[in-house]
Design a protein that fits this description.
The protein has 270 residues and is of the alpha+beta class. The chain is built from 9 helices and 7 strands. Helices cover 28% and strands 8% of the residues. The N terminus and C terminus are likely disordered.
Length: 270
């Protein structure tokens, strides 16, 4: 039985030495979604040197993230207040975000300082990401992922697999892990748990505003509300709800009642 993971720990499931290190308890990152580290050679050098941002967004369960433009990250105006929130590792974490992806050798060594900086960089990138997705370019990047249904589909039957949007239930990062990212449906206007496996992704990395600003910015993504509502029945009769106020909306019952079919024998004419 594996040990419970910290909210700040990202799990490594790469093959070879990195997996052995993970079994020894080395904090690492989950990368088997696209084999993001396959370009790293045995001596630790990278053949094409992918950026840290691209590598991070290709990690398993990180499909909710988009790639933040490095120019946006380098603009100090966009980073106001984050240095105080992140703490003493802010400088190293920022350097990591703007640098190259870590190598397998770096991730395999549990004594490396990189793991502590890596967790800080993850939080810093997430908080920058929450600001970026509210910009014109960030919204456009997320729209591309939305149309590709990378955020998932609504599990509600009457929403007919409408694409979802990531959302946070709070704007403050939770080190205790009690603010996981959710997914919002524009059709039923409800939220659902996001499938992130063993990887904790904080809701503050997307914020409470994003899906609603997204819908306002791209009105073509706003669905036409359907009026279908499930109606509980026993032997074909609707259940009486005592004291329930009448709903202002005109719902279409499902399962459908036959035309001219009374709700019960007491509704029969005459």
């Amino acid at each position: 039985v594996g040990r419970p993971r910290s909210p700040n720990t990202l799990v490594d499931r790469t093959r070879g030495p990195a997996s052995a290190a993970a079994r020894r308890g080395a904090p690492a990152m989950e990368v088997d979604r696209y084999d993001a580290l396959d370009s790293s050679s045995e001596d630790g050098s990278s053949l094409d040197e992918p950026s840290w941002i691209s590598w991070f967004c290709l990690l398993r369960h990180h499909e909710l993230f988009c790639e933040v433009d490095p120019a946006y990250v380098q603009d100090r105006f966009n980073l106001y207040g984050l240095k105080e929130e992140i703490g003493p590792l802010y400088g190293e974490a920022m350097g990591m975000i703007l640098g190259s992806a870590p190598t397998e050798r770096q991730l395999a060594d549990p004594s490396q300082r990189i793991h502590k900086v890596l967790n800080t960089a993850r939080v810093l990138y997430g908080l920058i990401h929450a600001r970026y997705v509210l910009t014109a370019q960030g919204l456009q990047d997320m729209k591309t992922k939305y149309h590709a249904r990378e955020f998932g589909q609504c599990p509600r039957t009457f929403c007919h697999k409408h694409p979802l949007l990531p959302v946070g239930l709070g704007d403050q990062y939770s080190a205790s892990g009690d603010n996981p990212v959710q997914r919002y449906c524009q059709l039923c206007e409800d939220v659902y748990e996001a499938d992130t496996g063993n990887t904790y992704i904080d809701g503050a990395f997307f914020g409470t505003t994003f899906p609603h600003l997204f819908t306002q910015t791209f009105p073509d993504t706003k669905p036409v509300k359907n009026k279908f509502k499930y109606v509980p029945r026993v032997f074909g009769f609707k259940l009486h709800q005592p004291g329930q106020a009448s709903d202002e909306k005109e719902w279409i019952e499902w399962p459908k009642r036959q035309k001219n079919d009374p709700d019960s024998e007491f509704d029969s004419p005459g």
